Amino acid sequence: MISEIITKKDCAKCKKCCQFESGKFDDVPRFSKRLTSQIKNKFGNRIVFTNKTDFYNVKLQKISESKYQCPFLDIEKGCQLSDSRPFDCKIFPFYLMNYKGDTVISISKDCPVIMEKKLSLLYNYFENTINHYISNLLKDGDFIVEPYHSDAIILKILNNNIINK
Ligand code: SF4
Ligand code: SF4
């Protein structure tokens, strides 16, 4: 869905959202309990998860002195989880966040491709396209609202009813 504004070719060259600089782990994906258990069944013990109370993080692989990557990233083929990626990854570089009690949609300052787009275009894209995509994912119930952090630009405040089902 996001591929309408960011091509697969862009992401194949970049891979930034699956790799993380030391000390900058805000964007490490959160896995729901349900998804974690599905993945454990499929991948077994070679993938290590850490329980963070209401979600799980996956243990990252160290690839250089200051860089880590998600264990599901295949450098040639991309994400091994495909449609089973966590919600965070399905909507990236958009975020579903809690900002001072409001649920907001924001965009990542770390995505070089989205930062080249005009905010008005991204807003229209959200309203006309990704809004429905995200709403459908929310119906599934397998999502996590993350706390706001300063690497995000808020695009829109959502009606909190959308997530309080
Ligand atoms: S940071 Fe943006 S361009 Fe780079 S891989 Fe992620 S979504 Fe694609
Ligand atoms: S789960 Fe997939 S898309 Fe998400 S960070 Fe890992 S490799 Fe990237």
What does this structure look like?
It is a single chain. The chain has 165 residues and is of the alpha+beta class. The protein has one domain (2-162). 27% of the residues lie in helices and 25% in strands. It is built from 4 helices and 11 strands; from the N terminus they run H-E-H-E-E-E-E-E-E-H-E-E-H-E-E. The strands form 4 sheets. The chain has a 4-stranded mixed sheet, with helices on one face. The chain has a 3-stranded antiparallel sheet with strand order 1-5-4, with no helix packed on it. A two-stranded antiparallel sheet has the order 2-3. It is globular. It starts with 7 loop residues before the first helix and ends in an 8-residue tail after the last strand. One iron/sulfur cluster (SF4) is lined by residues 6, 10-11, 14-17, 92-93, 111, 113.
Helix count from the secondary structure assignment: 4
First-to-last CA distance: 24 Å
Q: Largest sheet, order of strands side by side?
A: 10-8-9-11
Largest sheet entry? 4 strands, mixed
Ligands: iron/sulfur cluster
Low-confidence stretches: none
The geometry reads as globular
Class by SSE composition: alpha+beta
Strand content: 15-25%
Order of helices and strands: HEHEEEEEEHEEHEE
Helicity level: 25-40%
| Domain module tally | 1
Report the average pLDDT across residues: 89
Radius of gyration (CA) equals 16 Å
Got a strand count? 11
